[in-house]
Every structure is written in structure tokens, then in C-alpha cells.
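Handout, section B. The chain below has 287 residues.
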Amino acid sequence: MTALFALATSLLWGLADFGGGLLTRRVPALTVVVASQTIAVVVLGAVVVATGGWTEWGPQLWFAVGAGLVGPVAMLAFYKALALGPMGVVSPLGSLGVAVPVGVGLLLGERPGLAQFAGIAVAVAGVLLAGGPELRGAPVQRQAVLLTLLAAFGFGGVMALIAEASSSLTGLFLALFVQRVTNVAAGGAALYVSVKRGGAALPAGSGMGVLWAMLPALAFVGLADVAANGTYSVAAQNGPVTVAAVLSSVYPVVTALAARAVLKERLRGIQAAGAGLALVGTVLLAS
């Protein structure tokens, strides 16, 4: 069961990341985050009411609140990085966030083996290579890498927090609802401040019609991300966290394949090698 749910997590996260990256090329990243998560709140609210999930209310939901505060920052950074591209480099680097659940294990008394130490070295090498020669002469590419690393460790924090936020299926629905409400509150506040400072919530010259036209895509991104958090939580609660973390961290492969199929992206050799090393390092870290 752990492997099945963890692989489902990778599929859902990979497709959600690809969709979010595409939307961010048309609409500001913060707007994509707030709009997609608002749709998720509405759907999850209906599920919580239908299943009686509110009866699971308890102090463990503070973990969901924490995940909700970290999540928008990570998603905003990641969507901006995906918009800068290429997705085939950005997405694999995002998987380095699996180091956070591993770090939680260390705090709980686990000790890394030789493979995990090797994973640290391989992952760092992957980070350095994934930017390719453009790191020396193109600030945009350097910005994409830095944003991706920020997002990666944010995602890792969300993984660790949401796994502790519930112990039952109905409790999981409530935890995901609380997480998404917090997402929208934090993201909405940030969007309001951005607009007040002169930022744009929508592309220049467009109105709310552009969001209505993108509603199906926004719904898919928001709901796929919610479902991925749910399947990861189930995987982590029903088997070894390390197994769940490793199998859930292969989602960049899905994003990269989608980018290659839809956008016809081509990676430089050094970038492809770096992306591959980042994935290998991720697996070694959580092995």
C-alpha cells in the first residue's frame, strides 16, 4: 500500500507542477497559488461536511496550520522557477526537499548510513551542474536554481508536517482543509500587499475573464496538489517514511516527461547530468 500511494503522489505532484508552471507563464505566480488553492478549499470543505471530518478537530491540526503557512511560500517560489525554466532542470532540483523528512528522522534518533552521506555529496554536485554554464553569465538561470532550492525545502517541510496532522481518513480530510484555508489566507494577504505596492494580480489589459477561462486548469492544479498531500500522508502512515519519501520524490520525472512531450524542451548535456545527479542524490538521501 505504501508504494502504491507514494507512486500516486509522484504522478499527482508531477502533473500539478507542470500545470502550475504553464499557468504561471500567463498569470502571476501568486495569483495562480491563491486561485488554485481557493478551489481546493471549496471542494475539501464539502468533503469535510459530507464525511463528518470536523469531529476530528484537535491540537494535531497545528501541524496542518504550519504546513499551510509554509506551502504558499514554497509553491510561489517553485512556480516562479518553473516559469523561468527549463522545467526539466527546475523540477528535479525541487525533489531535494526529501532531505527534510530525513532530517526529522535524524532528530528522532535515526543515524544516516553511508548511502545517505553519499547522497548529500551527489545531490550538491547535481545542484551545481543543473544550472549549466549559464550559472556564470545568466542571472535568470541562477535565480531559477535559488528559487527551486527554497521551494524544495519548503515542500519537504510540508511533507513532514502534514504526515503528523492526522491519524485517520476523515481526520486527513480535515487536516487538508485546514492546511488549504491557511494557504489561501497567507497567499491572499501576500497578494493584497503585492497589489497595494503596485504589483499586478492579473496580466496587463486583462480582467477576471482570464481566470474564468483558466478555471479548469486552476482546478486541476489545486486538486492534484491536495490529492498528492493526501496520498503521501497515507503512504507515510502505513509504512516506512523513508520508502514513502523516496517513491514520492520521483515526481520530477513526470514533470520533465510532460515538458518534453508538450513543450518539446531540450536540455544541455551538463544540465541533464545535473538533474540526473539530483535525483540520484535524493534517492540516496532517503535510502
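Note. The chain has one domain: 2-285. Compare this with the example in section A.
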